[in-house]
Write a structure and sequence with these properties.
Blueprint lengths: L15 H8 L1 H8 L2 H7 L5 H24 L12 H4 L2 H12 L3 H4 L4 H16 L4 H13 L1 H13 L19 H13 L5 H34 L28 H8 L7 H23 L1
The structure holds protoporphyrin IX containing FE.
EC number: 1.14.14.18
Subcellular location: Endoplasmic reticulum
Organism: Chrysemys picta bellii (Western painted turtle)
Length: 296
C-alpha cells in the first residue's frame, strides 16, 4: 500500500485534489471499515459475495460511464476524460461472463442501494455535470489504490487463475504505473476551472459518493447474512460462518473444488436448493404411488 507521502509538489493546499482527499478522509475510513470490506481484507470473501460485488459494480460503472460519455466535452470533465485508461464496464462484462457464463445478463439483478447510486449518477450526469468529477475521482482513484490490494486478496481467496480471468476489473491495461497516473489525474483535476461555490459542491458530492458506496456494501453484507439465515450454506464456504473466530479459518477460505465452482458459475445468487430437493421428494412419492396403483 502506498502512503499519503506519494503526493508530489504539483498538489498545493487549495487544489481540488488535495481538498478532495481531505474532505473524504473520514468517509474513506468508514468505507474501509464496513463489515464487507473488513472481511474482504481478511481474505474472507466467498465466490458468491465476489459475484455480488462485481454485479453491483457493473451497474455502477455502466451508469457512471454512460454519463461520462454524455459529458466528455463538458469543460468540467474534459481534463479527466481517460476512457482507454480507466473505463471499467467492458472489464466487468468479461468478469461477469467468466463467473456466470454466457447468459450472465439474465442471471443478475440490481440491488436497491446499487440502484440508488445508479440513480444519483444519472441525475448528476444529466442535471449537474460539474459534479461528475467527484464520482469519477471516488471510483477510479480508489480502484487504482486500494483496489490493487483487493485484487491480490480475491485471487488468493478464490483460487483464480493468475492469467487474470475473473479479475479484469482490477486490471488496468492502459495504466503502466498507477502512482504516476494518479499524479497526472490529480493535476488534471486541479486544472478544471471552478469557482469556490462549485468546488464546495464537488467536495460534498464526493462525500455523498463514498456514502453511496458504503450503503452498497452494507446491503450486500445484509443479503449475504439473510442468505445464511435462510439456510443456503451450499453457496458459501464454511469459513463465512466462522468469521471473527480465531484459528485456521482466519487465514482465508478453503479451496473451492472445481466442480463446485462450475456449479456455482451456472446458478443464480440465491438458488432454491431446498425447494428443488422438496420437489424431487414429492415427485418421487407421487411416482411411487402411481406405479403401485398401476401394478395392482
Ligand atoms: C478495503 C477497502 C479499502 C482499502 C484497503 C483502501 C486503501 C486505499 C489506499 C492505500 C489508498 C492510497 C492512499 C494514498 O494514496 O495516500 C486509497 C486511496 C483512495 N481510496 Fe481507498 N481503500 C479502500 C476502500 C475504498 C473505497 C470503498 C473507496 C470508494 C468507493 C475508496 C476510494 C479511494 C480514493 C478516491 C482514493 C484516492 C485518495 C486520493 O489520493 O485523493 N477506497 N485507498
Amino acid at each position: 500500500m502506498e502512503g499519503s507521502k506519494t503526493h508530489s509538489s504539483e498538489s498545493m493546499p487549495g487544489d481540488l485534489s488535495e481538498a478532495l482527499k481531505e474532505a473524504t478522509k473520514e468517509v474513506h475510513e468508514q468505507a474501509e471499515s464496513t463489515e464487507f470490506m473488513k472481511n474482504f481484507q481478511r481474505g474472507q470473501v466467498s465466490l458468491q459475495e465476489f459475484k455480488m460485488v462485481l454485479t453491483s459494480l457493473y451497474y455502477i460503472y455502466s451508469a457512471l460511464e454512460e454519463e461520462i460519455e454524455r459529458n466528455k466535452d463538458h469543460p468540467a470533465y474534459i481534463p479527466v476524460y481517460f476512457p482507454a485508461e480507466l473505463h471499467r464496464k467492458t472489464a466487468l462484462q468479461e468478469d461477469l461472463e467468466y463467473f456466470y457464463g454466457p447468459l450472465w445478463r439474465e442471471e443478475i439483478s440490481c440491488p436497491e442501494s446499487t440502484q440508488k447510486y445508479v440513480n444519483r449518477l444519472h441525475y448528476v450526469g444529466q442535471h449537474e455535470p460539474e459534479l461528475l468529477v467527484a464520482h469519477a475521482y471516488t471510483r477510479y482513484l480508489g480502484d487504482l489504490s486500494g483496489g490493487q490490494v483487493l485484487k491480490k486478496i480475491a485471487q488468493k481467496a478464490l483460487h483464480l487463475p493468475n492469467t487474470g480471468e475473473g479479475l479484469e476489473f482490477f486490471t488496468f491495461e492502459g495504466v503502466s504505473n498507477a502512482t504516476k497516473f494518479k499524479q497526472l489525474y490529480r493535476s488534471r483535476m486541479n486544472s478544471i476551472e471552478m469557482d469556490p461555490a462549485t468546488k464546495k459542491r464537488v467536495l460534498e458530492e464526493a462525500k455523498r459518493a463514498f456514502l453511496l458506496n458504503i450503503q452498497v456494501f452494507d446491503e450486500l453484507q445484509k443479503l449475504v447474512s439473510q442468505c445464511h439465515e435462510n439456510g443456503h450454506p451450499a453457496q458459501h464456504k464454511p469459513e463465512l460462518r466462522t468469521r471473527g473466530t480465531s484459528g485456521a479459518h482466519e487465514h482465508g477460505p478453503a479451496p473451492v473444488k472445481e466442480g463446485e465452482k462450475t456449479l456455482m458459475k451456472h446458478t443464480g445468487m440465491l438458488p432454491s436448493t431446498p425447494l428443488v430437493r422438496w420437489i424431487l421428494v414429492v415427485s418421487f412419492l407421487v411416482t411411487t404411488v402411481a406405479v403401485g396403483l398401476f401394478a395392482m
